[in-house]
């Protein structure tokens, strides 16, 4: 598990470094956020199938947006912020009863005013819509601020 977290952080860091200042097309974004698996326990703003969900709309410079995003995510129950590196944020949510862990990745693209997101369960096949509801709750809380 530690190896996976380190690899995720390293991949995010390398992708951000390699693409800082680039136009950030869809292919570049797909290299930064992990793709959804075939199971229905994941949503992503980069997916164009049943996993698809709209990105978050936010505007401002990267530092201010990431600070706001981090504050909103930290206010949600069962969360641990793993890393914030430039325009990338990785958080882990743990369920109250069974302690299931879900990964949330956020990637802000300042030129688009969008935060691309991915939320996925680590285990199991079906999440009963938990990840989609998490993103919609995050969207609501951002709109309130």
Assigned CATH superfamily: Kinase associated domain 1, KA1
- The level of helicity is 25-40%
Broad shape: globular
Tell me the domain tally.
1
Signal peptide: 1-28
Keywords: Signal
Write a structural description.
The chain is α+β, with helices and mostly antiparallel strands. It has one domain: Kinase associated domain 1, KA1 (TATA-Binding Protein, 2-Layer Sandwich). Helices cover about 35% and strands about 25% of the residues. It contains 4 helices and 6 strands, in the order H-H-E-E-H-E-E-E-E-H. Strands 1, 2, 3, 4, 5 and 6 form a 6-stranded antiparallel sheet that branches. A hairpin with a 4-residue loop joins strand 5 (about 100-110) and strand 6 (about 115-120). The longest helix is centred in the N-terminal third of the chain and has 18 residues, at about 1-20. It is globular and about 35 Å long. Residues about 1-25 have low confidence and may be disordered.
Write the layout of secondary structure elements.
Blueprint (H helix, E strand, L loop, with lengths): L1 H18 L6 H7 L9 E3 L11 E2 L4 H13 L4 E7 L2 E7 L6 E9 L4 E8 L8 H15 L1
Antiparallel strand pairs: 1-6, 2-6, 3-4, 4-5, 5-6
Pfam families: DUF1499
Keywords: Signal
């Amino acid at each position: 598990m530690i190896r996976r977290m380190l690899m995720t952080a390293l991949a995010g860091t390398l992708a951000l470094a390699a693409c800082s200042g680039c136009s950030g097309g869809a292919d570049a974004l797909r290299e930064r956020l992990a793709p959804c698996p075939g199971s229905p326990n994941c949503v992503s703003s980069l997916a164009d199938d049943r996993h698809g969900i709209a990105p978050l709309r936010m505007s401002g410079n990267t530092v201010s947006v990431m600070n706001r995003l981090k504050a909103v995510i930290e206010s949600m129950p069962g969360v641990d912020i793993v890393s914030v590196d430039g325009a990338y944020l990785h958080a882990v949510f743990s369920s109250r009863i069974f302690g299931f862990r879900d990964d949330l990745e956020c990637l802000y693209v300042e030129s688009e005013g969008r935060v691309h997101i991915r939320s996925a369960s680590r285990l199991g096949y079906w999440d009963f819509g938990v990840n989609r509801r998490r993103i919609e709750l995050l969207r609501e809380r951002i709109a309130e601020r």
